[in-house]
Amino acid sequence: MDVSDGIQARAVSFRYRGRPALSDVSFDVEPGVTGLLGPNGAGKSTLMNLVATLRRPATGKLTVDGLDVMTDTTKIRSRVGWLPQRFDVLGFATVERNVAYAAWAKGIDGAARDDAVEKALRAVDLWERRTHRARTLSGGMRQRLGIACAVVHDPAVVVLDEPTVGLDPVQRVGIRRLIQDLGHRATVLVSTHMLEDLAALTSKVIVLNEGRLVYSGGIADLADRGVHRQDGSISAVEAGYAALLCSDQDLGDE
User: Fold this and answer.
1) How far does Cα 108 stand from its chain's mean position?
2) How far apart are CA 9 and CA 26, in angstroms?
3) What would the pLDDT profile of 87-109 be if each residue is shown by its tens digit?
4) Strand order across the beta sheet in which 59-64 lies
5) Residues 1, 156: contact at Cβ < 8 Å?
6) Residues forming beta bridges with residue 37, ordered by sequence position
7) Max Cα distance, the chain (Å)
8) How far apart are CA 12 and CA 47, in angstroms?
9) Sign of the CA dihedral 232, 235, 240, 241?
10) Structure confidence by residue, pLDDT tens digits, 175-213
11) Residues 2 and 156: beta-carbon distance below 8 Å
12) Among 200, 156, 153, which residue's Cα sits nearest to residue 178?
């Protein structure tokens, strides 16, 4: 796989049932891992759906790996790995069969499919469980299976929606390591409400609030906003994030 060209948004807007879900959002996501933050209803899922070409912007320009989502949908889908927060697996099929089906759906055939499946399962440390039925997997293993299905075609861009939600601390550490590894060879956009996961994954973050971009930059700079607000119950990153949202709310009320 060639080096990813990342994701670029310029004044992207989207309306859902007549209401603005994203409003004039502009940012750049470079190769590596970038976090996507925001409260419920901020527009995170909408943005990820746009990147995955499941929806189209109402206005503005969005490019994924150098391709325009309005004109190059098929090419983009072949280069994007997408794992929604809620995803289905073939419970009665084996782990290997699930990934093989995902490879087939991405147009990988024959011996190339076998090689791709093995590579993906080894990457998520599930090769030894390839003959197990998917319904027997633990929560963490199921998440790893979902990621294997998402990346079996070696995508240039990987989009993950809440990949550690519902997992215990040990399982979350495993998923974080996997995402970090993906970031060495792809552009990874990961949405999460767990700031401690994000702080361990990346130095880059995008924050949305009420459909607007309110921050794009380093996680260290975000933490600096909360240095004087933290206490024993909240980290500097969490305090900085809360301060950012409060400041944005105050501006919106003026």
Assistant:
1) 23
2) 5
3) 888 889 999 999 999 999 999 98
4) 19-29, 7-16, 59-64, 67-68
5) yes
6) 207
7) 62
8) 9
9) negative
10) 899 999 999 999 999 998 888 888 888 889 999 999 999
11) yes
12) 200
